[in-house]
## 1
Amino acid sequence: MASVLIVDDAELFREALRAAFTQEGFEVVGVAADAMAAIDLTREHEPDLVMLDLLMPGMSGLEVLGTIQKASPRSRIVLLTASESAEDLLAAVKAGASGYLTKDTPLPRLAAAMEDVLAGGAAISPAMGGKLFSALRDLLRHASAGSMRQSELTGRELEILTLVGEGKTSKEIAEELFISENTVRNHVRNILDKLGMKSRFEAVNWAYREGLINIR
């Protein structure tokens, strides 16, 4: 029999979940109304599942998720929330949640989804599935665009971009690389054209974020 800990600041919702999970054959080892109680009960029982409310007074579900994982690494954590924010969804995935379900999920479907999580799967509300797919698509497009931009820059252009990032002028760069100022300006212009950017500052920030340059 799988064990579950229920964490929610709304008493009526906690008790509804307790009844639903008990009816479906789960062992409810505890209920908690806040993050600190959730941590203590997780350490005590090491449940198979932790049903964690996203929005609670004090520490939110996202803020406490990592601590709960450390308290019981074997526990799988599913966030229950009224939030349909794609930002919250991505934060939950990044933090290590095994599911993200909205509170309007019918209780029988909720219990069935937990069986999937226990089997090594994940649970997500249908309304959030499209948002997750859209967010992943955007991230992959960004990563692909970054790779294309990186491959277009030559070693010399990256060298000049690094020096620009160190705050050096075209004259100083020219002196250091033993080339003319005009050649430096041409390189910078080519860099901006390849990256589709308007300023040296924007190009340097992008290259730094992508790990292409190190600024001393």
## 2
Amino acid sequence: MSDATSDIEDGPTPARELEAAPLLLRKASMILIGGAIFPWMTSISTKGEMPWQAWAIATLLTLLGGFIMFEGAKAKSGRKAFGLAKSIAGAHPMAPTIFGVVCYVAALAVAWTMGGTYFLNGELVQPTAEAIEGVEETYRLRALLEISTLFLALATLAHIKAYEYYQTKFNPIFPLMFLGPAVAGSLHVFTALTGEGSLKIIGIAASLVVAAGGIMAMYTMYVSLKQAKVEGDLKKAAMREQRKAERASRRSS
């Protein structure tokens, strides 16, 4: 998706020209999606022994939720959107967001109930060994973190689209939440470097991409604060000029 709005169809609601902070956050979101869509944590923790069915279903549910939220913002602005998203948005303005959250919760449930990779003393064991003392489950919790990272990126992308169409204000909480992926991705690179299994390279590369997306979003916070300070200074200067003009007007009268 380009930074310009030339690819957006004309509709009842005009698209705003995005400022530096939303543009950076949009780029950070797309970078984060590029890393979080892979099993960047679980591929290492399971040594490549992934519960692929659970991972695929959870990932697809998360992508569906984010896609409906994104398309819902387009539909609410009167632009062409995916048919299902248009129908959902027509039911209620908050319906696409609710749908997205429901898909996210369903993805978490799938990852927790269908997933599971168990190791005993470093050796892979059958799921039935879960109750045996000393068995370590290495997939579920990390899968929840992966899904949450992906959903954060998708929800942020949808938020920027809604902001672009004047449906909401720019929320600085979104770039702040990227602190988690920035730290987790950076730290997990070292874990992935010492990892085992056929998906080690994916774990390393995707962790780097996740860290990059999170760090870029952190920089967005700095840009937002700098932009807010500039706007605040301009408002103060305008108020000073207004008071000066009022005093001059009173003296002349």
## 3
Amino acid sequence: MKFIEDFVKKMKPQFERGGKYEKFYYVFEGFETFLFQLGNTTIGKSVHVRDAIDLKRMMMTVVLSMVPALLFGMWNVGHQHYLAVGEEAGFWIKLLIGLKVTLPVIIVSYTVGLGIEFLVASINKHPINEGFLVTGMLIPLVMPPTIPLWQVALATAFAVIIAKEVFGGTGMNILNVALTARAFLYFAYPMQISGEVWTYMGGATAVDGYSGATPLAVVAVTEGTENVVTALTSTWHGDLYNFSNMFFGFIPGSIGETSALMALIGAVILILTRIGSWKIILSVFVGAYLMGWIFNLWGASPFMELPPHYHLVMGGLAFGAVFMATDPVTATQTEKGKWIYGILIGMLTVLIRVFNPAYPEGIMLAILLMNVFAPLIDFYIVKANKKRRLQRATV
């Protein structure tokens, strides 16, 4: 790496004030910041607060926490492919199939997103930060494996420009950028983001009776007096949608969202490093379970009768609770507000699943809706705290 560092130092004067490529200074600085720890230090003899964490380290930690979901998602893409075509394959063959499908989506996401950020930074003459390191990985993980690459590029551009840059860039957005990209595709191109789009076929012919419907889609179309758990275990591949498979992630779905276990491993990393809020993660699960339990009492449809714990492992609830709801920019900041924010996300997720047959998954819309209300929740929490303190002061 020493030769790279020497080359960067040699080229730096060309990008500084008065250099040949002065207008591209912030693009150069972005690459330099990403590659190396800069030599900026505090000066003088005053006391300073020092911390080992900065934005780059924080973003890299979040990316590392997503690696288990990414690697499992790659393998599962290949696993679902061979299940659908009725063939056997080894672990590495399945992983290579998944890599073939997933890697182009990741490359497109980062290329388009970073390209826009570099362009905006050059125009506005402001430094490039590392915020898109996380978003660039989240976008592929919430996409189905069959998504056209041009749609990934279009959704990424829309999300970065509309949900981020128009608000001032990283740290200023009010909506989760990755979820904005997915929402854009869902409403603009529903055929490519919903329905039976969750299994990569690669031109092969599926086995007789094959269905690419996700567990949530199966439950959503269950009617009459049929037991919803029985419907899940009576699909084209027998017990494909039993609770165990849904927890571990051996089911069709978005690239990185199928495994609740991998999401929980990521949650442990985020909580131990104090980057993700355990209160938000836990409260999302509590809210979803509570809403599922309330619907069990109502019992007006098979979906309402679904055992509450099934909601916790179906769809992208676990992934959304860990990696989306905990976004420090768009989530609530007050401690009490985190509980309210998370519980409402969980409850709204199940509510949308049950009452919106056109879109049985609800975590995306629930998080985006609560992103909008997060500042309002914090406002009233702070207002209530001030009121209590003023009352104590006058006693």
## 4
Amino acid sequence: MLNFQDIKKEIFITLKLAYPVIIGQLGIIMMGVVDSIMLGRLGPVPLAASSLGNSLIFIILIIGIGSSIVVSPLIAILVGAKRYSECGVYFRQSLLINVVLSLIMLVIILIGVNFITYLDQPPEIISQTIIYMTIVGFSAIPLMIYQTYKQFIEGLSVMKPAMVISIAANIINAFVNWVLIFGKLGFPALGIAGAAWATFASRIFMALVIMFYVMRSYKYKQFDVTFHFRSLNFPVIKKILRLGLPGGFQNFFEVGAFSIAVVMIGWIGTDELAAHQIAINLASISFMGVLGISQAASIRVGNAMGGQNIANVRKAGFTGIGLGLSVMFFTGLTFLFLNKFLPTLYVSDKNVIAIASKLLIIAALFQLSDGTQAVGIGILRGLTDVKGPTIITFIAYWVISLPVGYLFGFTFHYGVEGVWFGLLIGLTVSAILLTLRFNYKSKHLIQF
């Protein structure tokens, strides 16, 4: 039986791991916020184009990012079991996998831009979206290298370096945006292309800095964290892919649903698409916060699994869910009370502001569901349970969310608000099913 002191201690440990990740993730998402604010000054069209471009690119990148995340709980399990000598092996094989994945994703993006015209989007948006995606696509390579080093050290419960790097990268992104979007310091005004080049530059910076830090730090020397591949370890590669790819598709099904929602909203109009970008951008800020808790809880569950302390598995998991709910409750209140003010930080167009303010009310309603499902995926990943959550996310978003969104948005003529109602339903279903699965799986482990 857990007492209050046990829970209090677990909350403290989880938050200690989570806060650098939260700040780091917020730093990354703030790049998108700054992009949107700056592009919003150019009008609804560049803002809508960046929304569509980011959605389409992220639906591809998320498979690689989701696959790379599995390294953290795997390393955490090895640490919990005190099998330190194997950590370097997992790092080197994951680096190889992630570089190959980045090249595959780049090719898919470069080919995929040729099919954007078939998405039936406003003509003025399509050309700018193609430019944006083509440039940002090349950032897949440095992004996946960064992810490899980041997930490795976070599996060792070292969270602060990624936080510092993301904050610095955010500053660089904002500065390059200012220079290239508006044509400052003698550079030409590139508009949306300037925002794309800023993203590319900031991701190269992130990869180079984290590589330099990890390779030069004495604490990681024992793991051989360079590009030197001693050999291919096919059992480890197979294990990483077996657990990582389903994790990537979990994220794909969720992010993909939101990306398809962007396409559907584009059928409605440019103002609606711009308003969606504002609302989803703000919702992403709160999501990055809970994602830090998810990552921390995943590591805590992995440590407990490695140490074969199954009671602590449940304690770590449900503590994470409780913290996620707490964070999202307050962000939901913020969206409710400031729903008319927050969009004015992005644009001055009154119609876009009015639409975005209504979407923020729906965003406030799905905060608790979004927080619960995000932590649920993390703690199940800590159990190395990936197949069940993949099925759950597919059903929640592609079988339920998108059809409901289309039904309310177009059949019942609720427009963009109807599409967002579908997203609310999908997130709620996912949250309930993932929580029930963790409860079942963790009980089964105790009985076993």
